[in-house]
């Protein structure tokens, strides 16, 4: 790769890793939001 392999593979790695991290963060935020809604509903019912 003409001495640019580190940059090429680093870019490919970042292109794969960052969307996976974003997906994981979205799942965690969604789970937290659903748990908060459930707590609010449970509190409102009492």
From TrEMBL:
Keywords: Cell inner membrane, Cell membrane, Cytochrome c-type biogenesis, Membrane, Transmembrane, Transmembrane helix, Transport. Its main location: membrane. It is a single-pass membrane protein. The chain crosses the membrane at residues 6-28. Pfam families: CcmD. One of its GO terms (cellular component) is plasma membrane. InterPro entries: Haem_export_protD_CcmD. The keyword Secreted does not apply. It is found in: Cell inner membrane. GO terms for biological process: cytochrome complex assembly; heme transport. Belongs to the CcmD/CycX/HelD family. Required for the export of heme to the periplasm for the biogenesis of c-type cytochromes. This is Heme exporter protein D. The lineage of its organism: Bacteria, Pseudomonadati, Pseudomonadota, Betaproteobacteria, Burkholderiales. The gene is ccmD.
């Amino acid at each position: 790769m003409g001495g640019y392999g580190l940059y090429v593979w680093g870019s490919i790695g970042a292109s794969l890793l960052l969307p996976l991290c974003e997906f994981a963060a979205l799942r965690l935020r969604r789970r937290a939001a659903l748990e908060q809604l459930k707590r609010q509903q449970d509190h409102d019912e009492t």
